[in-house]
Design goal:
single chain, alpha+beta, Phosphorylase Kinase, domain 1, 3 domains, 7-stranded antiparallel β-sheet, 9 helices, 21% strand, flat
Length: 249
């Protein structure tokens, strides 16, 4: 009998498109399904063969020298034949593409852009969690039930606390993915609102909270104790500030 996961999940796992929980479940499935294990081995072998094949050609040294000479040697302006014009257009297009790519790489590491990307990521993760069946992997108001659930699923132990007495009852937790990293997500209630608090390891020094809004959702990000926190909700900004202070106590 053919395994249906070989056609539906195998390629997603191979291309790193599954979330952390889905990947862990499929790895457990691999231990019991020889068809999927053989399929995964075949995909890895194909990728390895293609890498070894080196399916590309190096630029001839003579052409490289000529392009560099054209770029650095001043020449009088003349009316060039059609072929020469196309050559210069190609060189100019290549330079523009290179400059644009460099600008994009540099802009990713600018503080403002990083903050924008992080805000978009956490809001997207928050919206995904609001879909039916996605809010929690462990549903409990008991911090002593939620905290042990993360054991073995992350390489750190997230601080799990119930703030029901302060108006933020714990609802549960789950694994999520933010900006390509697996994170802990703690879910709190706030009146009729839900608050997601994403937590992941950070090598950066502690930092005071930064806040903002996107798509109508508020977010508050801070670092403390070797971890980065980001709370997001459609509640008032003051509520997120109060929750951050509770974590800091």
């Amino acid at each position: 009998m053919s395994c249906d996961r070989a056609d539906t999940i195998l390629h997603g796992y191979f291309d790193n498109e599954l979330d952390a929980l889905g990947a862990a479940e499929f790895e457990h499935h691999l231990e019991q399904c020889s068809e999927c294990a053989d399929g995964l081995a075949a995909l890895k072998s194909l990728r390895s063969s293609m890498n070894r094949a080196q399916l590309y050609e190096k630029t001839p040294a003579a052409l490289r020298k000529k392009v560099l000479a054209d770029l650095h040697v001043a020449r009088p302006v003349v009316i060039a034949p059609a072929r020469t014009q196309w050559r210069w257009l190609a060189v100019a297009a290549a330079l523009l593409l290179f400059a644009y790519a460099g600008w994009r790489v540099v802009s990713v590491f600018r503080g403002d852009n990083h903050e924008t990307v992080l805000a978009a990521e956490v809001v997207d993760a928050h919206l995904r969690s609001l879909q039916p069946g996605h809010l929690t992997d462990v549903l409990s108001t008991d911090q002593h039930t939620v905290k042990p659930w993360f054991d073995g699923k992350l390489d750190f132990s997230p601080p799990v606390r119930d703030f029901a007495a302060q108006g933020f009852p714990l609802q549960g937790g789950r694994l999520d993915v933010v900006n390509g990293r697996t994170t802990a997500a703690l879910v709190y209630g706030r009146r009729k609102h839900l608050v997601n608090v994403f937590i992941w390891l950070s090598s950066e020094p502690d930092a005071v909270p930064r806040e903002g809004s996107t798509q109508g959702y508020q977010w508050l990000e801070w670092r403390a104790g070797g971890m980065e926190f980001c709370a997001v909700s459609d509640t008032a900004p003051a509520d997120l500030e109060q929750l951050q202070r509770l974590f800091a106590e």
